[in-house]
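hey m, so remember when u said the tokens were messed up on ur end? i reran from scratch. heres the input so u can diff it against urs
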Amino acid sequence: MSKFGMGDILKQAQKMQEKMQRVQDELADKQVEGSAGGGMVTVTANGKQEIVGITIDKQVIDPDDPEMLEDLVVAAVNQSLEKAQELANDEMGKVAGGMMPNMPPGFKIPGM
């Protein structure tokens, strides 16, 4: 019979949950940037995948071509959110990796 009982497993799960919550809270303070148009549009997102800032160079604002600006904003937002997701996955993986080292590649923890 195993040395670990159900109580030990529950304690380990609770510790992991506490660590994961702490990392999620810390992700709000970490930021990543995505840009488009050679940096003409820059979008900043935090690790919780919230957009926290957008910078648009005045040179890219053309009243006769709003579609170009719209496309640049969408591209920069998507890039920043992708980087924010990677950041969150990396940070959560550090916590989960020690507790669940046999997780398959690409496995995502619900809510992350």
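this time it looks ok to me. The mean pLDDT is 85. if urs says something different then somethings off w ur setup not the seq
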